[in-house]
Amino acid sequence: MKTQLDQQLQFHQTALNLQAHRQQLLASNIANADTPHYKARDIDFREALQGALGKQSNLALATTQSRHIAGGGGDVLEGATKYRTELQSAVDGNTVNMDVERAAFAENAIHYEASITFINGLLRGMQTAISGQ
Amino acid sequence: MSMLNVFQIAGSALNAQSLRLNTTASNLANADSVIAEDGQPYRAKQVVFAAKPVGATPPVGGVRDKGAAASVGVQVTQVVESAAPMRLVYEPHNPAANAEGYVEMPNVNVVEEMVNMISASRSYQNNAEVMNTAQTLLQRTLQIGQ
């Protein structure tokens, strides 16, 4: 039986995982700012969170016949990972825009810290309830 | 642990950028080296960057690391020599001059190298900052519940 604390913790844990994953993607983009032909990537956070919480998966195969194989549904993260729209084209085919990446990186770091703060708050609340003080 | 991959990504970028900075330093230092180690004038060198997946360790217990596909670091695949023509300078009294009185000078483009240097140092700073942020976040993660 899942308690309310479990459910809330699970939600924040999922969000934290996705934010860590996104941080990794953004770090890759920043690292490859000078690599020819590198294409910047990012995840659609909303879509990834909904997918990770089991609401939907956009990689599921459409089945129109009873004998069609349903398919595994794919990995949620891979489905939500997309290529960034190019703002300014570069001669070497690189699509990293450092301003965009740095802004996204800083923003994602704040979101990550916010998730940690929420988790800490939940745990502290439970601690207070247990100790009764 | 996907946050740990960030260290590898930024680390590989720092490594690549410092190699680029080294190459630029060599080029600038040898901008006037008429005779290099092979007896020919020094040729400008450039590094070639390529994206390289990091953290793609073999699956542990059949579970593939989901973050491995997302982490792409940088790698220097090769150091190429510039194919630009050598700079010819008219110096008839120079012992290295040819019959017409021209000396072959290195094909280092100083302006290009300065631009490269600034670009490399900016990229290095960015990646160092990425590492700092990742470290802060990881420390916060370890302090959950304390």
From TrEMBL, chain A:
BP terms from Gene Ontology: bacterial-type flagellum-dependent cell motility
Cellular component aspect of the GO annotation: bacterial-type flagellum basal body, rod
Cited InterPro entries: Flag_bb_rod_N (IPR001444), Flagellar_basal_body_rod_CS (IPR019776), FlgB (IPR006300)
Pfam family, one: Flg_bb_rod
Keywords linked to the UniProt accession: Bacterial flagellum, Cell projection, Cilium, Flagellum
Location(s), subcellular: Bacterial flagellum basal body
Domain spans labelled Flagellar basal body rod protein N-terminal: 9-39
Top-level division of the source organism's lineage: Bacteria
First-listed, main subcellular location of the protein, grouped into a coarse class: other
Summary of the function given for this chain in its UniProt record: Structural component of flagellum, the bacterial motility apparatus. Part of the rod structure of flagellar basal body.
Subunit comment: The basal body constitutes a major portion of the flagellar organelle and consists of a number of rings mounted on a central rod.
Entry similarity comment: Belongs to the flagella basal body rod proteins family.
Protein name: Flagellar basal body rod protein FlgB
Gene name linked to the record: flgB
From TrEMBL, chain B:
Top-rank lineage group of the source organism: Bacteria
A Pfam family: Flg_bb_rod
InterPro entries: Flag_bb_rod_N, Flagellar_basal_body_rod_CS, Flg_bb/hook_C_dom, FlgC
Entry GO terms, CC: bacterial-type flagellum basal body, rod
A GO BP entry: bacterial-type flagellum-dependent swarming motility
Subunit structure: The basal body constitutes a major portion of the flagellar organelle and consists of four rings (L,P,S, and M) mounted on a central rod. The rod consists of about 26 subunits of FlgG in the distal portion, and FlgB, FlgC and FlgF are thought to build up the proximal portion of the rod with about 6 subunits each.
NCBIfam families cross-referenced by the UniProt entry: FlgC (TIGR01395)
Domain (Flagellar basal body rod protein N-terminal) ranges: 8-32
Family: Belongs to the flagella basal body rod proteins family.
Keyword list, A-Z: Bacterial flagellum, Cell projection, Cilium, Flagellum
Chief place of localization: other
Name listed for the protein in its UniProt record: Flagellar basal-body rod protein FlgC
Flagellar basal-body/hook protein C-terminal domain: residues covered: 100-144
Subcellular location: Bacterial flagellum basal body
UniProt source species: Azoarcus sp. (strain BH72)
PANTHER family: FLAGELLAR BASAL-BODY ROD PROTEIN FLGC, FLAGELLAR PROTEIN
